[in-house]
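Thread amino acids onto this structure.
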């Protein structure tokens, strides 16, 4: 039986060398009740250049990355004057790449082989955050989101296995203008 490799990292980690969000679009609608409870929904779509290579031993490495991703979330919160605290839950999709590169010795030759998987996966998203209305139209925002897209197991010809847990931890800070 081969080795089982269990890397435990999350991409993008906003602040790590590989966690960069390139483009993002957000559409949101909120409704506030008379008792200050707020409900709403939001859709977002973005593109990330986030990737990570983790060298194991010799020339072997685990390779992972996220491309385009999007989500649809329901939000519920409470408005404290100009501050809105909210929680969100929903579903998302992401383009995910996972790979395992390793070296094989065949006689006098050393060969490098790669097992690679790319797929679009769906998963659950949950998080929370705050919004603050600086003026009637200008709003600042901060939020944390956790997305879980399941795991992927790759096996090589020599039965070496690599398992990837495809998760994202997103911390976002931004500003918007309300029309």
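Threaded sequence (179 positions):
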């Amino acid at each position: 039986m081969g080795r089982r490799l269990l890397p435990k990292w999350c991409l993008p980690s906003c602040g790590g060398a590989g966690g960069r969000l390139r483009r993002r679009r957000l559409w949101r609608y909120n409704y506030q009740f008379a008792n200050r409870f707020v409900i709403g929904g939001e859709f977002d779509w973005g593109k990330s250049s986030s990737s990570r290579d983790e060298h194991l031993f010799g020339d072997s490495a685990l390779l992972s990355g996220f491309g385009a991703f999007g989500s649809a979330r329901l939000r519920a919160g409470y408005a404290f004057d100009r501050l809105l605290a909210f929680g969100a839950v929903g579903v998302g999709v992401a383009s995910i790449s996972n790979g395992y590169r390793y070296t094989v010795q065949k006689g006098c030759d050393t060969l490098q082989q790669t097992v690679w998987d790319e797929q679009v996966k769906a998963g659950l998203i949950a998080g929370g955050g705050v919004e603050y209305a600086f003026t009637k139209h200008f709003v600042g925002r901060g939020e944390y989101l956790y997305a879980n897209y399941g795991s992927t197991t790759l096996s090589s010809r020599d039965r070496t296995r690599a398992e990837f847990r495809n998760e994202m931890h997103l911390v976002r800070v931004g500003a918007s203008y309300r029309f």
